[in-house]
Design goal:
One of its GO terms (biological process) is cilium assembly. It comes from Sterrhoptilus dennistouni. Pfam families: Cluap1. This protein is an all-alpha fold. 75% of the residues lie in helices and 0% in strands. Helix 2 runs parallel beside helix 3 and helix 12 packs across helix 13. About 21% of the residues have low confidence.
């Protein structure tokens, strides 16, 4: 915070700004530091999208590595939290130290001097490797020199003794002959190596020529193979076209099958719903028939009393026969028409007109005879009384078309 204030950053910065990731502030500070280090730098300041942010961080890190030789951790910069402050401090401390050494005045170099130091890092990789190798050699040579300087006290006495001793010509001549012979041996070895190099070069050239010939033959053979059409290629293309047709047919059938399965499922679902609805309606009808049957069974006592009154009004012999037939027909009709509702009164009272009663008795006799014939054909046994009426189950409504 103090360094940025001393460098002249227009905004006040505190550590509270970096408790949570604040990439906008980090990008603004980085761009300001780059411009402060080199005003002619052209680094895009777009940080709207994720790709733009990554490109911005990489551009700033590459600029600082090439221009200021400052290595920045791009991952921490992208986090834009407290760890990013440590990376920003590397650049800020360099600028702050330069300002202190120069008395707070920025050294404004001419445009030619500023462009003089621009170089491409990719073209200097070989020089960088050579510099590293020389640095390692300097270190090793320095260590050897340090060890030799430690032995200087002992070597100094031996050197002074050798210098003070008088030189003998015979020994010197002997040493010189030995040195000359060793040098001649080295020269001979070098000549032999040169001759071997020439032979090796000739053998390598022969191998190269041989490889070139093999390469040319292989290329010619490849061209001939590429120009020749395989025997099975026509059949392959024909089968490929048939396969495309079969695949299109398969797709069409698969779609139709899927559509038909869907229609079948819809039809089954509709039938199931209709079946459930019919079952519910049948259950309601059965309950209603049971209620009406119970209602008719309760009103059966009153009907028997009415029939007895009608039997007393007729003749003695014919009245008994008609009463029996009337009872049988009434019970049969009641059993067949359980679900029908009878409108009217069956109570016997005073007859106002004898003609009307005669006609009704004739119609009743005809209906009773027809009902007896139907009963004989169906071989049904009907017991007189109220117990037989209650014991029998109601017949369907289609059999009770005749009314009286």
């Amino acid at each position: 915070t103090e360094m940025m204030r001393a460098l002249g950053y227009p905004r006040i910065i505190s550590m509270e700004n970096f408790h949570t990731p604040n990439f906008m502030l980090v990008s603004e500070v980085l761009l300001w530091l780059v411009k402060r280090y080199e005003p002619q730098s052209d680094i895009p300041g777009d940080v709207d999208t994720e790709q733009d942010r990554v490109f911005f961080i990489k551009a700033v890190a590459q600029f600082m590595a090439t221009k200021a030789h400052i290595k920045l951790n791009t991952k921490r910069l992208y986090q834009a939290d407290g760890y990013a402050v440590k990376e920003l401090l590397k650049v800020t401390s360099v600028l702050y130290g330069a300002m202190n050494t120069q008395g707070g005045e920025r050294a404004e170099l001419p445009e030619e001097d500023s462009t003089k130091f621009k170089f491409d890092l990719g073209s200097k990789i070989a020089d960088l490797k050579a510099a590293r190798q020389l640095a390692s050699e300097i270190t090793s040579k320095g260590a050897v020199l340090y060890d030799l300087l430690g032995k200087e006290v002992e070597l100094r006495e031996a050197r002074t003794e050798s210098i003070a001793r008088p030189l003998e010509i015979n020994e010197a001549e002997k040493v010189m002959k030995i040195a000359i012979s060793s040098v001649l041996e080295e020269v001979q070895k070098t000549k032999d190596m040169l001759n071997n190099v020439a032979l090796d070069e000739a053998s390598l050239e022969a191998k190269i020529e041989k490889r070139k010939l093999e390469l040319e033959r292989s290329q010619k053979r490849l061209q001939t193979l590429q120009s020749v059409r395989p025997a099975f290629m026509d059949e392959y293309e024909k089968i490929e076209k048939q396969l495309e047709k079969q695949y299109s047919t398969y797709l069409e059938k698969f779609r139709n099958l899927t559509f038909m399965e869907q229609l079948l499922d819809d039809q089954r679902r509709t039938e199931q719903e209709m079946f459930e609805e019919a079952a519910n309606m049948l259950r309601l009808i059965q309950n209603r028939l049971k209620e009406e049957e119970q209602h008719l069974l309760k009103s059966g006592g009153n009907d028997d009393s009415d029939l007895e009154i009608q039997e007393d009004e007729g003749s003695d012999s014919e009245g008994d026969l008609q009463a029996t037939r009337h009872r049988i027909s009434t019970e049969t009709l009641l059993q067949g028409r359980v679900g029908t509702r009878i409108v009217g009164s069956m109570q016997g009272g005073d007859m106002e007109e004898d003609g009307d009663s005669g006609d009704s008795e004739i119609d009743l006799d005809e209906d009773e005879e027809e009902e007896e014939e139907d009963l004989e054909d169906d071989s049904m046994e009907i017991a007189p009384g109220k117990s037989s009426l209650r014991a029998r189950k109601p017949e369907p409504l289609e059999q009770s078309d005749n009314d009286f």
